[in-house]
Amino acid sequence: MNTLLVASEVKKTFIMHMRGGVELPVVANVSFSLKASSCAVLGGPSGVGKSSILKMLYGNYGTDSGQILVQHHGRHVDVASASPRMVLEIRRDTIGYVSQFLRAVPRVSALDVAAEPLLIRGVAQETAHERARELFAELNLPERLWSLPPATFSGGEQQRVNIARGFITDHPILLLDEPTASLDAANRAVVIDLIARKKAEGAALLGIFHDQDVRTAVADHVIDVSAFAAGKSAA
Amino acid sequence: MSHSDTLEALAAAGIPAPVKPLLSVEGLTRVYGKRIGCADVSFDLWPGEVLAIVGESGSGKTTLLNCISSRLTPTCGTVHYRMRDGASADIYKMAEAERRYLMRTDWGFVHQNSIDGLRMTVSAGANVGERLMAVGNRHYGNIRNTAIEWLSRVEIDEDRVDDQPRTFSGGMRQRLQIARNLVTEPRLVFMDEPTGGLDVSVQARLLDLLRGLVSDLGLAVIVVTHDLAVARLLSDRMIVMKEGRVIEAGLTDRVLDDPRAPYTQLLVSSILQV
Ligand SMILES: Nc1ncnc2c1ncn2[C@@H]1O[C@H](COP(=O)(O)OP(=O)(O)OP(=O)(O)O)[C@@H](O)[C@H]1O
Ligand SMILES: Nc1ncnc2c1ncn2[C@@H]1O[C@H](COP(=O)(O)OP(=O)(O)OP(=O)(O)O)[C@@H](O)[C@H]1O
Ligand SMILES: [Mg+2]
Ligand SMILES: [Mg+2]
Asked: Whole-structure pTM over 0.90, yes or no?
């Protein structure tokens, strides 16, 4: 099967200069790969470094050492050492990301927030909005909210805007940070279905899911992040 | 195969043509006597890219911006600009007339203080029209219509076209500066604290407007700001300055979410949330 991303020996330590330069080793030796048409899940207790790994793959956190090779426009690019410009290009075309919380830009409507990844890729506004409306409808987001800025939405409503934004493109790699955390059972089922469809389309997904039922439904394999925990004795 | 044939073939194959930097800054340094304004700053800026320069007061942001935009002569270092014909030009080796023309047409400069960027005693319409005349427009009716079109694009009512900017509010003056600069369709715009001194709600509106214009027009922008929220909202990349030097640079969200340098961590932790 086609491997779309390979992380090898990735290491991350935070140095907290505001606290006297104390070092917070998070993960080391992170090595795994993501294959097309599959969904991997990052597992492990709170604070072990799951979100940090997703953020490094997305270029949102720096990587101390190691490589994150992605298949981008038919060649391999190392996100860990890529220029900012290349990271933006990878985000535009190759890696999508659903963050745990929506960062709402003031005064931008939910429709525009969700459609933006398509607009950036040059899709016509009408087409992009149409696609966003379809996703909103599928995610049961009340129609009266669509043209409003999400800043005042409930946690679950914001999360559904975020999910629509992440799923609207056909990025070959999709990262999901607890997309179902604030959703009810019916909407969790919608997300499970969306993930299954992405897989069928050939995407490689990597997610963090707290709900056991979601995890069971979507995971092809689980990557135990505790195994990469840095600074902890290897007992 | 000619160059344009090659580009067409690439485009047909879905491969974007290689893009070169619009601006290349190298080793740019400016000293004021013994005091450092900015020291050894280097970076490339690409077409359509928005770069934010942040840092505390006195860190050299304005000095750097002015050296890049040729409003202040650097002590050493070079600035290369890619002209519309694709050739790269050293802006400090250009003839003075050529540089002036560049500044009036292909570049824009939005000042923090609108008094520095507008002519207060001529009408709003004339403020916008002035740059059109600089590029050779002579037809009064066309100039006026274009000016009115741009005023409406920056949300200034048509019936204010004959008023002088001294009768405008702070937010309106900033929007007028933007219209005045963008009317010649520049490719690069410099902004020094464009939202400084404005009320929060007025700032938000100006930022909305800027975000829209930057993406619609594909502008490259270098924006100096002390406000990290402005940097987050507008920019792709960031440079953090301290005592005239660049101490951290990178993708905006990387610098803000995973700051490395002690000073950047201090800067990010001193604000509530960005
Ligand atoms: N930007 C940051 N600066 C400093 N420390 C950070 C930063 N981001 C994460 N950390 C620390 O890194 C460790 C791992 O955090 P991370 O968010 O990756 O954990 P997680 O496995 O996703 O946890 P949870 O399941 O609770 O979401 C934590 O100790 C956290 O405090
Ligand atoms: N014309 C000048 N003559 C002497 N020193 C100057 C001159 N202009 C600036 N400086 C000094 O150069 C340093 C950088 O100033 P600059 O105006 O570039 O800072 P800045 O980062 O834009 O600050 P602010 O955020 O307050 O606008 C400061 O120490 C300043 O005092
Ligand atoms: Mg997490
Ligand atoms: Mg200044």
From this structure: yes
